[in-house]
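Sample entry (140 residues):
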Amino acid sequence: MRPDSPTAKTGSDEPKPAVLFVEDDKALREMWHAAFEAEFAVSTAASARDAEFQMHKQEFKVVVSDHLMPGGNGLGFLVRMREEYPRTQRILVTGFMKPEMLLRAVNEAGLLRYFVKPVNVGELGKAIREGVRIADGSAV
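Predicted structure, serialized as tokens:
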């Protein structure tokens, strides 16, 4: 079994929570994979279309999506994921967005959090862990 597979085990034989990163920038996908693979079963997608395909094949606790990508809008993708997979927690990453657009994004996609690039990996990790707790029903 690959260590980054969604069913990878932690040292305590508990499965790692599955997290999907959707980002068109290959360097960012690779960085996020490397940063989080020890704690989560990380999958990546280069487009919203690829991410939707993966979502249909596997359950993810958290999806982290870029906003503007060629061939698809990350916000639209997260809105669809909210409707289809309401327990999956959603985080949006954007290079630029007007404050009123961010408020709309939070409401429409039911975002757990949003981040403006460049993203602090430590803060993103905290948000993902919070999302996992919520998806598992263990958060208040």
